[in-house]
Amino acid sequence: MSAAEKLYVICGHGAGDPGASGGGYNEAERVRTLASEMARQGGSKVSVLDTSKNWYKSGLVNAALKASVGRNPVIELHMDAADGDGPAKGAHVAIRAGFSPDAWDTALADFLASYFPGRADKITQRSNLANLNRAASHGINYRLAEVGMIDDKVDRDKFNANVPAVAAEILAAFGIGGAPAEPAPPSPPQTPQKGEAVYNFKTVKKGSKGDHVSLFQSAYNERFGGSLAVDKSAGPATHEAIGDAQSRLGIKKDFSCGPDTWSHLLGT
Ligand SMILES: [Zn+2]
Asked: Cα(147) to centroid of ligand 1, in Å?
């Protein structure tokens, strides 16, 4: 496995959103503690991106992020909570549906699943996580790590007692730390498997609600300097923005952001 030239770290939640909680701890604080330990150990090979931001809500996984990270890997840190039905404990990695895990994903998932066991799948492929979709649309090498269940006492105690070890193992999955590694070219970006469209997001039109609406709103703002509220809800302003985007992109103006509009809007 080639070592990452640099690992970029995004902390889940924050900016007033504590994320999941358990045992008096919250996810936003725990993953920031982990990230700062990763930065301490990794030195110049680790860049923890602005921890004051909520990267999901603010739509910052965008072209500007791609411009700063290039082909280097990005990891978004979370802790999970068992909401009733799901698995009660354990860690895993989530990547964009349609992508094959790369060597970094596999090494990371092998560590997490052995250190925080309990999940049936150490890697899950998700199509409904906004930051994975945004990263995919910009060609960013990206994964989410759910570093154990914060509401499980075994996972939480193990995490809390071993932050330096967890940080070291995550870095090791990207070839950072330990013996000085030979400089190696970064892995190529994850590529879609054959037959999988990258822009298979749901259609956005007036009245649509959900993460795909936020993705349109943030993409529109970014591309055209708009000021749409990124609020998961397509009201009159978003309706007008879809038509405006279609006019500017030179495609059929039907106020419905389907596959053709997505690919023009997100295409590079
Ligand atoms: Zn989370």
From this structure: 10
The Cα-based distances of 86 to 46, 82, 90, 149, 176 in angstroms read 32, 6, 11, 11, 33
Give the whole-angstrom CA distance, residue 55 versus residue 77. 11
Environment of ion ligand 1 (residues, CB < 5 A): 12, 19, 78
Question: Residue 189: phi, psi to the nearest 5?
Answer: -60, 155
Question: 88 alpha carbon to ligand 1 midpoint, in Å?
Answer: 15
Which pLDDT does position 215 carry in this prediction? 85
Ligand 1 centroid from CA 86, angstroms: 15
Query: Both ends of the chain: CA-CA distance in Å?
Result: 29
Strand duo 73-80 + 7-11: pairing: parallel
Q: Which residues have CB under 8 Å from 221's CB, separation 6+?
A: 59, 227, 228, 230
Kindly give the residue spans of alpha helices, DSSP state H, lying in the chain. 27-42, 63-69, 103-115, 130-138, 153-161, 163-173, 211-224, 236-249, 259-266
CA dist 159 and 153 (Å) reads: 10
Domains and CATH numbers, the chain: 7-173 (3.40.630.40), 186-268 (1.10.101.10)
Neighbours of 264 (CB within 10 A): 17
The tens digit of pLDDT for each residue in 193-218 reads 444 445 567 899 999 998 889 888 88
76 alpha carbon to ligand 1 midpoint, in Å? 9
CA–centroid distance, 28 to ligand 1, in Å, is 8
Q: Is 119 left (phi over 0), alpha (psi -120 to 50) or beta?
A: beta
Read off the pLDDT of residues 222-239 as tens digits, 9 standing for 90 and up: 888 889 998 989 999 999
1 C-alpha to center of ligand 1: Å?
28
